[in-house]
Amino acid sequence: MSRPPVDRSVASRVTELTTLLLILAALVVIITELPAEVFSPESKSFFFAIGAVGAWRYSWWLVQAVRSTWYNRRIFPRLRAEADAAAEHSRPPELYVLCTSYRIEGEVNFRVYDALLRELVDYGVPTVLFASISDRTDVDVITHVLDDHGWPDHVEVRYMFQKGDGKRSAMAEVLRAISRRLPAPGSLLVSMDGDIRLEPGTLERSLSFFQADPGLGALTTNNSAIVTGNDATREWYDLRYAQRHLVMSSLSVSRRLLVLTGRYSAFRADLAVQPDFIDLVENDQVEHWRFGRFKFLSGDDKSTWFWLLKNGWRMRYIPDVYVSGYEELPDRRRFFASTTDLMRRWYGNMLRTSNRAIALGPRPMGLFAWWSLVDQRLSMWTTLIGPTVVLLVTLFVRPSFLFAYLLWILFTRGIATLILAWQRGRYSLLWIPLIYYNQVWGAILKTYVSFRFNRQKWSRQGISAGEPDDPVAVRRQRRMGHVLHGFAYGALLFMLVLTTGVLKPPDRMSLAIARDQGNGAEAPAENANRWLAQVATTVPEGGSVRLPEGELRVNEALLDRLAQKPVRAERIDGADGRLASTLSLTLGVAEHITGPNGAPPDGTTHCTPDAACTLTLDQQRLTLVNLRLRIESDTAPDVAATAGP
Questions:
Q1: φ and ψ of 213, to 5 deg
Q2: Which terminus of the chain is more exposed, N or C, with fewer CB under 10 A?
Q3: Which helix (H) or strand (E) holds 247?
Q4: What is the pLDDT of residues 128-186, one digit of tens each?
Q5: For residue 627, what are the contacts with CB-CB under 8 A and spacing of at least 6?
Q6: Which alpha helices (DSSP H) does 451-592 contain, by range?
Q7: Between the CA atoms of 477, 483, 484 and 489, what dihedral angle is there, to the nearest 10 degrees?
Q8: Cβ-contact 407, 515 below 8 angstroms
Q9: Residue 475, exposed/middle/buried by CB under 10 A (0-12, 13-18, 19+)?
Q10: What is the largest distance, in Å, between two alpha-carbon atoms of the chain?
């Protein structure tokens, strides 16, 4: 496999070292604060969050990684040998290049067309280059490049000025112009963006696959990035390309892809000039039960992919050929806002097309590719299960569970990024937080877009589309989107609350106390033997029992119940960390308790964190804090109270 360009943008060593120190410091804090009971079998909700769902998601990801490795190590070397052998005997009779540029800096324009002309000269096939440009300065740049290359005889340049209403109309105009030239059988079309630099050998090493495989309809290549921005931006792009490489390689085993990237893709020209192909590129639209019929603004690469998919043409990813993109966030000073805008556009393109592709069924694409499309719809919800459950457990069970989740993130994302690095050929510690950011925030954006995917915006061209012209209809659509989105996530949250049991129904004692307090009555002391024994023997190992406010009565029956089962709790805490809970004790229970001074309690005793009390059982001791102990002088009333519980 060829090496990526040496000038691709990566983080500096200082940033990598700083990230390493931060991760090590985080590990020290996490391990120090990790709760002992987190790995207890009783921690079912936490196991569900990071275990069951995580096993499902990462087993699917592992399948993708294994297939990717199989393609790159076993399948592709054979395909490469066949393509190289075919290139020695034949080449396409004609080559057409569609390059779309919209307000790209002159320096970048020059580098892009300089590399393109170099490739066309080296390839030596009669070529028509359609430069879809935005103004006359682009003509000057291309003329300068042609001067440098001596105006090669086999390269014809045609200029077509864009309308400024998006890339789709510009592409359609060029495709119609190509169709009027009646391409010879076997001719090829290269479609590329105006900010993509072709690396040496790109045409030679990619287009040869069409000569080797008559059933191949289109292909795309590996990507690298030349980024204008900080280290986080650089690694964010390179991580996305590493993930892209893994998924593209995996899908190529099935001879299908999930997108034909607009940065650089090649097609058979006789397919690209089909009237329905051109119409789909220019006027792709969808009929939706809420939004009605609306046209797609961006996502032309999804439209070309869908046409080939439904017509049964094979697609291929070429991992050893790189093209380099000049990348820059819409606002380089605002990483979060800019990456959100980009992901929202990308995910919108995906969601607008995936439903109709899934409706085709497995037959035209194979079961694995079809399920990959289905998984895109599922993963945006399953990815949110882990963070949601951990938030519930942290809020309602024990805050320190958050540290266990952070340890899980570092472990799983560390392994995932190592696998990506093995296939990508380089590694960055910044990938660990960035991959989690892409997964979780990306899932949130996907769910958001899925209820509003008619709303489209292209930041570079400053245009938007998809919503009605009537402001009232716009507000109505947006309100409905908020309602449906809230209902969907609320249903997920409700299911997780029930499944994990973090919010259990109140017990009889809590209901009685709440009823008495609601009635404004003085809550009488209620026997707590059964409730206290049950909680103390069922909490996670080493946990604590939190008492409600008010007075609770216990007697010797509590000791009998605690002797029947192993006691898992280590502490009994008063309500809200204050002396708002009182345990009313019989003399038989008081004999097993020592106060802060080491002697049995006498009268009323305060148990505080600095002066705790201790309940001694046969094989264990329970610490009592933040509560009052009151010894009953007359135990007669307690006899009746303990007849049942």
A1: -135, 100
A2: N
A3: helix 231-252
A4: 999 999 888 999 999 999 999 999 999 999 999 987 777 889 999 999 999 999 999 99
A5: 547, 572, 573, 574, 579, 581, 582, 583, 607
A6: 471-500, 508-518, 529-538, 556-564, 587-590
A7: 140
A8: no
A9: exposed
A10: 113
